[in-house]
């Protein structure tokens, strides 16, 4: 452990009381927890009995997080714990919500090029660090980019990420994950022309992404594992995939931040996949350095995609980032949007006694009484979308 690494939090599950529910994903439930001696932190809790290999994915996420200490734009593991029913881990709390929520709060639901430049730069640094550690993220999308109290961003949700096996040729690498199923092949998307070892494709959500403002309190875009609109062509064809899938997703993200929609969205999954494989992104207005960058990231052949040869440095050198002082990004004191401090709310909620986490999951198992609405209502507070 280096001198900057904090010792892991000793999480005593029976004593933990959550202040409120922050959100629910396909795998876990995330609470805001305040341990008196510490700043508030986010606690992700997974029920061991839940479906979708959740326990395995949870352990995987914990192991990835434990390797990510001290990066300014990546979540890190503060501590973890488990009992017979649940496994949980603590990560820093990001009070600013995610980039999807933030985008929907902008006029026309888009960010200006200056804001895009700021967020992209931080995301590129985060991906660069992951790739240097041999980790492919594979789930880049606005919902997984959270805004810290400082206004800087954090990538979160690593259950889909994978560590690469050593490179043994110039060919794209494949992942070996018994959990992943070659579902797309069944659907006729196998296009393994290069004779590369077939990568098993990530399963994707059957639920499409929606306006987060329309969500009920704890609902979110339900990314089962990966979001189809963000999938790179080589994942769909099963042609073998590696770090370049993250650069493709960066192109999709950038397009969505600029135009308020993703570039290849179809009426259904089949049409979306067809567009990803066969159509070029449509740009509106005069071409500029931002559209040029997007076009180069959305190159269908991964070996010709920006970032394939020299990783993040190739992207950092692009014209769109000219003049940006990469080493000073963390010093920016006024990022585009700053969450307001919600300490009053935290103190008030703490005064009410908070949520007993073990009890929360026990109550969910009790069948609802015919006279009463489901017990979930006992606890679910609305997600507070911090005003900027
Ligand atoms: N550190 C955090 N600070 C604040 N909110 C958070 C934090 N981590 C997660 N959340 C919220 O909790 C919700 C669920 O988190 P997360 O996406 O990590 O769960 P998941 O089960 O892995 O989801 P997925 O469906 O993407 O696999 C998200 O909507 C996010 O807004």
From TrEMBL:
UniProt xrefs under PROSITE patterns: PROTEIN_KINASE_ATP, PROTEIN_KINASE_DOM, PROTEIN_KINASE_ST
SUPFAM superfamilies attached to this UniProt entry: Protein kinase-like (PK-like)
E.C. numbers: 2.7.11.1
Catalytic activity reported: L-threonyl-[protein] + ATP = O-phospho-L-threonyl-[protein] + ADP + H(+); L-seryl-[protein] + ATP = O-phospho-L-seryl-[protein] + ADP + H(+)
Disordered, as annotated region: 169-203
Residues at which ATP binds: 44
GO MF entries: ATP binding; protein serine/threonine kinase activity
Sequence ranges assigned to domain Protein kinase in this UniProt record: 16-321
Top enzyme category: transferase
Keywords: ATP-binding, Kinase, Nucleotide-binding, Serine/threonine-protein kinase, Transferase
Keyword Ligase: no
SMART domains (UniProt xref): S_TKc (SM00220)
Xref: PANTHER family: FLIPPASE KINASE 1-RELATED (PTHR45637)
Protein family (similarity comment): Belongs to the protein kinase superfamily. AGC Ser/Thr protein kinase family.
Annotated protein name in UniProt: non-specific serine/threonine protein kinase
Source organism of the structure: Forsythia ovata
